[in-house]
Design a protein that fits this description.
Blueprint: E1 3-8, H1 14-24, E2 32-38, E3 42-48, H2 51-59, E4 67-73, E5 88-89, E6 95-103, H3 106-115, H4 128-139, H5 145-155, E7 158-166, E8 172-177, E9 183-186, E10 193-196, E11 208-211, E12 216-220, E13 228-232, E14 243-244, H6 260-266, H7 268-276, H8 283-290, E15 300-305, H9 307-319, E16 327-332, H10 333-336, E17 348-353, H11 359-370, E18 374-379, H12 385-390, E19 393-395, H13 408-425, H14 428-449, H15 452-462, E20 467-472, H16 477-491, E21 494-499, E22 517-521, H17 528-539, E23 545-549, H18 552-557, E24 566-569, H19 578-597
Parallel strand pairs: 15-16, 15-17, 17-18, 18-19, 20-21, 20-22, 22-23, 23-24
Antiparallel strand pairs: 1-4, 1-10, 2-3, 2-4, 5-6, 6-7, 7-8, 8-12, 9-10, 9-11, 11-14, 12-13
Helix pairs in contact: 1-2, 3-4, 4-5, 7-13, 7-14, 9-13, 9-16, 14-19, 15-19, 16-19
The chain binds fructose -6-phosphate.
């Protein structure tokens, strides 16, 4: 939800560094963008649309700058318009501010400021910030900008990462509070400093970084030996603990791929290898390193997540069956936090999140923490807010996921949850089965890529339809949910995920020639034949079917195959790992369908990668 950046550097590089940083953070929001630079005056340039459009607008500017700020927006308060795009300024246009988060008391502050004579140009919550700083600055007789900045912060209620500049100050002022992330990046020579919502904006310039904590203010200026100073709202200096920034440029570029989404889909053999690592061989290390002091008697595992991450949690609900003696509940975080849940101190509560910044997941986790539950995280983004709050758990180490539609994070989450079951149940047979399954999983994923052309062909044939049903049962029911989510978010077609057995209780009414049903049918289980009956039910109502299956022969024998059906044959694997295999053709189906429709798969409309607002 919005990406912000501030650059303090040299050689007139501000425009380039800021645009580059914004491009890398564009996944956070991409409805509009803007920059502000400071020299004698503040120059603000904003645009509705993508960073590349802003770049074209900036091409006409001949001046060079060493200091500047930038923002890429995902609208919350106020429609998408140039006016509402950040940076926002005070009335004299001497102060410019970019903000990520929500100012909860903005209406009250706006009213007070209006009474003092401040005029507002936008509908945003953010605009109160430059006016408030201006008010305190003028109250101090234009004397002390840092004091004015801090005094303004003290009046704000909500979550914020803020970066501000003033035309007369050769400095950048930043602050962080609540769930909006902010990182400080420092170059080796210390003459280039960046603050940004994501590490991606630092890579290539800053070798060291620090994740800013709640209530920290950073002033960046050559006046400080280190180039910056960190303090709290009361002015007490805070010691910095800089860490190395990984240099992995490859991870943040598309390389040979047309889109990040396709790159990330194809990375899955490797990301699975990393997620599994030696973990399955050394389950005891999970107890020592990842979940220390976990209560011995766990009877309930609660998984908190949103969207795709929740679907990974839903897979785990099926893994923890009656034999495990552990009840596993996957809860949608935005619902869970408001349903006054019954929580016990011996509940094991885990937040699952790719970004580690999802506001609802974070809030639900904090609630469990307050209730005294043992909490942890399964997170991809290192050092993120959820990782910090959980303080224990497992990192996926899947590398940056830049395509807005989550792909590789999902399969790594499922892999880690499968290992978690092995860890919590300590069942030797299961562990042995998993070891064998995981050892062949990456090559089986590669096999799915061999039928990519066939999936592309199916995508071309079906992408013209308007609505789709995704149907699966048991552990593959969450895969149906995930297949439908992937499809709808990037093709903008209506796609519903349903348990196949539930179809006759309503959704079957939708079946006609124009509504393809995508079935996921794998593993020999007690409902295998029943799902085949569901397929027949669709066909007898003239519905088209696409079947993802590991046993084409069984379908044939059952009279379930006709010439017009589309069969996507996937390699067989143990049932526990089948969601990881089965979801891949669905990711590809969504990807190619969206491509045929001409959509931007990496940045689907109205979405943002990291949902830091409720
Ligand atoms: C869908 C998607 C979203 C996220 C959800 C949670 O492709 O990406 O549904 O899964 O917003 O995000 P994280 O995992 O970052 O908490």
């Amino acid at each position: 939800m919005c990406g912000i950046i501030g650059y303090y550097g040299k050689d007139g590089k501000a425009i380039d560094v800021i645009l580059n940083g914004l491009k890398r953070m564009e996944y956070r929001g991409y409805d509009s963008a803007g920059v502000a630079f400071s020299d004698e005056n503040i120059l603000v340039v904003k645009n509705v649309g993508r960073i590349k459009d802003l770049e074209s607008k900036l091409n006409g500017i001949e001046r060079i700058f060493d200091i500047g700020i930038g923002h890429t927006r995902w609208a919350t308060h106020g429609k998408v318009s140039e006016e509402n795009a950040h940076p926002h300024t005070n009335m004299d246009e001497t102060i410019a501010v970019v903000h990520n988060g929500i100012i909860e008391n903005h209406a009250e502050l706006r009213k007070q400021l209006k009474e003092k004579g401040y005029n507002f140009k936008t509908e945003t919550d953010t605009e109160v910030i430059p006016h408030l700083i201006d008010f305190h600055y003028k109250k101090n007789n234009d004397g002390d900008f840092k004091k004015a900045f801090t005094d303004a912060l003290k009046e704000l209620i909500g979550a914020y990462a803020i970066v501000a500049i003033h035309k007369d100050e050769n400095r950048i002022y930043c602050a962080k509070f609540g769930s909006s992330p902010l990182r400080l990046g420092v170059s080796k020579s210390k003459d280039e400093i960046i603050v940004a919502s994501d590490r991606l904006a630092l890579i290539g310039i800053c070798e060291e970084e620090q994740i800013l904590e709640n209530g920290e203010i950073v002033v960046i200026s050559k006046d400080y030996e280190k180039g910056y100073n960190i303090e709290d709202f009361e002015g007490f200096e805070i010691e910095d603990i800089l860490r190395k920034v990984p240099k992995d440029i490859e991870a943040i570029t598309k390389g040979e791929y047309e889109d990040f989404m396709l790159k990330e889909i194809r990375e899955q053999p490797n990301t699975i290898r990393t997620a599994v690592g030696g973990r399955i061989e050394h389950l005891e290390t999970l107890a020592i390193d990842n979940f220390p002091d976990l209560p011995r008697e766990i009877s309930r595992l609660i998984l908190l997540a949103c969207g795709t991450s929740w679907h990974a949690g839903k897979v785990a609900e099926y893994l923890f069956d009656e034999k495990t003696g552990i009840v596993c509940q996957a809860e949608i975080a935005s619902e869970f936090r408001y349903k006054r849940p019954v929580l016990f101190p011996n509940d094991f509560v885990i937040a699952i999140s790719q970004s580690g910044e999802t506001a609802d997941t974070l809030a639900a986790l904090k609630l469990a923490k307050e209730k005294g539950c043992y909490i942890g995280g399964i997170v991809n983004s290192v050092g993120s807010s959820i990782a910090q709050t959980a303080a224990k758990g497992v990192y996926l180490h899947a590398g940056p996921e830049i395509g807005v539609a989550s792909t590789k994070a999902f399969t790594s989450q499922v892999a880690v949850l499968t290992i978690l079951k092995a860890f919590l149940t300590n069942d030797d047979n299961y562990i042995k089965k998993l070891k064998d399954g995981f050892s062949e999983l990456p090559s089986k994923i590669e096999e799915v890529f061999k039928i990519e052309e066939q999936i592309k062909d199916i995508a071309e044939r079906i992408s013209g339809f308007e609505r789709f049903l995704f149907l699966g049962r048991g552990i593959n029911y969450p895969v149906a949910l995930e297949g439908a989510l992937k499809f709808k978010e990037i093709t903008y077609r209506l796609a519903e995920g349903y348990p196949a057995g539930e179809m006759k209780h309503g959704p079957i009414a939708l079946i006609d020639r124009e509504t393809p049903s995508i079935f996921i049918l794998s593993g020999k289980n007690e409902y295998y034949e029943k799902t085949m009956s569901n397929i027949q039910e669709v066909k007898s109502r003239d519905g088209r079917v696409i079947i993802v299956t590991d046993d084409k022969e069984a379908l044939r024998k059952n009279g379930c195959l006709t010439k017009t059906d589309f069969i996507i044959e996937v390699p067989r694997i143990i049932e526990e790992l089948s969601p990881i295999i089965n979801v891949i053709p669905l990711q590809l189906l969504a990807y190619y369908s969206a491509k045929f429709l001409g959509w931007d798969v990496d940045k689907p409309r109205n979405l943002a990668k990291s949902v830091t607002v409720e």
